[in-house]
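Q: What residues go here?
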């Protein structure tokens, strides 16, 4: 890969996905794009770059998805799911008691382990959620990973990573070497393709947003922009969950940390502005 090709791809990935690669990440691009070139029947990365430079939409999309497909596993990092069970849901069950409806957004749902982990947490609450309407929206830039999430089929290796055995037995059915999430849990997740760089106000309002391990790849201005737009979709008593290495501190005052809850934030009440669907309208629209 020539230096001009590398700089061209760096700009392409930033413009299309927000991925901000430093000048020393050529090895990462090569490791992700070489398998893609072979999959496309091309001789190597130079031929793939030629296709991309020619404006081939298919190859551009495939290249961007190859670079932005990140690792995930069930109950990843554990702490956010402890917060969800012990802090977020108890507070929201009280705050939304009159409406008995909640909306949760997994903004980088990937192959589904995060939204399905949340669905399992909700099912474990049992009678506490009787009569409630809870929606989980899972979005991702990659249609390929969304299709895997919809199918809910995972290998033995994937279900062994972070998933308690009792959850596996309770919420999965084995089929040969693979395990599939039960239809009841799969029906709890709505999947939509979405680029966080684009307008997402059409999704409506949310009580909880999981946006973990994705903004870490964005530059500072892009992070600030996404945080500010997220705040417009949430009431002051909602919750934003970030990854362990992510923070809003020093970037924006639209969110504030929840004391003694790592990675957990609440809107600062600065929701006014374009881009937010009024909550009443969102509920009326079934969102």
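A:
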């Amino acid at each position: 890969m020539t230096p001009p090709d590398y700089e061209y791809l760096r700009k392409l990935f930033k413009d299309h996905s927000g991925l901000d690669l430093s000048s020393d990440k050529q090895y990462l691009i090569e490791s992700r794009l070489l398998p893609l070139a072979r999959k496309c029947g091309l001789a190597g990365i130079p031929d793939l770059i030629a296709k991309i430079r020619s404006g081939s939409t298919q190859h551009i999309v495939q290249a961007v998805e190859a670079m932005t497909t990140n690792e995930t596993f069930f109950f990843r990092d554990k702490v956010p799911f402890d917060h969800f069970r012990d802090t977020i849901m108890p507070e929201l069950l009280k705050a939304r008691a009159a409406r008995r409806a909640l909306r949760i957004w997994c903004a980088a749902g990937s192959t589904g382990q995060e939204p399905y982990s949340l669905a399992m947490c909700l099912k474990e609450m049992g009678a506490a959620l009787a009569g409630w309407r809870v929606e989980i929206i899972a979005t991702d830039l990659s249609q390929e990973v969304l299709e895997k999430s919809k199918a809910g089929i995972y290998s033995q290796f994937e279900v062994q990573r972070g998933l308690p055995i009792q959850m596996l037995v309770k919420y999965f059915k084995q089929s040969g070497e693979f395990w599939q999430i039960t239809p009841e849990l799969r029906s709890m997740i709505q999947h939509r393709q979405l680029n966080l760089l684009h307008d997402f106000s059409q999704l409506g309002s949310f009580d909880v947003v999981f946006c973990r391990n994705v903004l870490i790849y964005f530059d500072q201005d892009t992070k600030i922009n996404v945080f500010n737009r997220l705040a417009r979709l949430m009431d002051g008593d909602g919750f934003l969950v970030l990854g362990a290495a992510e923070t809003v501190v020093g970037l924006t005052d639209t969110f504030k940390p929840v004391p003694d809850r790592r990675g957990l934030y609440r809107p600062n009440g600065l929701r006014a502005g374009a881009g937010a669907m009024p909550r009443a309208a969102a509920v009326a629209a079934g969102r």
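A: Context that may help when evaluating the design: The chain is about 40% helix and 15% strand. The radius of gyration is 20 Å.
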